[in-house]
Design a protein that fits this description.
Elements lengths: L6 H12 L6 E4 L21 E14 L2 E15 L10 H7 L1 H14 L5 E12 L2 E14 L2
Parallel strand pairs: 1-2
Antiparallel strand pairs: 2-3, 3-5, 4-5
Amino acid sequence: MTTLIRPQTIETILERLASIEQIRYVALDQGQLDQYSDSETARPPIATPALLVSLTGESIAPYKGCSEAILTIDIRLITDCSTVANYAAPSQHIAKATTPYSLIPEVVERLTGIDSEMAYLGFDEGMRQRTLSELKLHFRLRGLLHE
């Protein structure tokens, strides 16, 4: 085994994320939103809230007679933020505007709760296009590779 990137690793990540009740779309990030900001399409090509998964890098180093692999994973949490989050707005507007932040703990729990080798590294704000908003959640999967 020379890598952590295996079909079962990816399938497990997608299955765990798909089990979150509020999430309406889960997929590998294959540019689903790339065309949206430049097109005349009124609606995004995915249902929200959505999770788009990217395997962003892997490093491998010698470790006690085998190799230690670190796989970095970014998950784009996409929501439709078409409501106003002003403190004076109706409570349902504030609840919708804060949806991405309320989903983070469940995403983290689904990915780190079962597999102690998966670590949550934090998030940062991603793109905003039209009414869509993105938070990028960063994870690290550590594993030992035996020849």
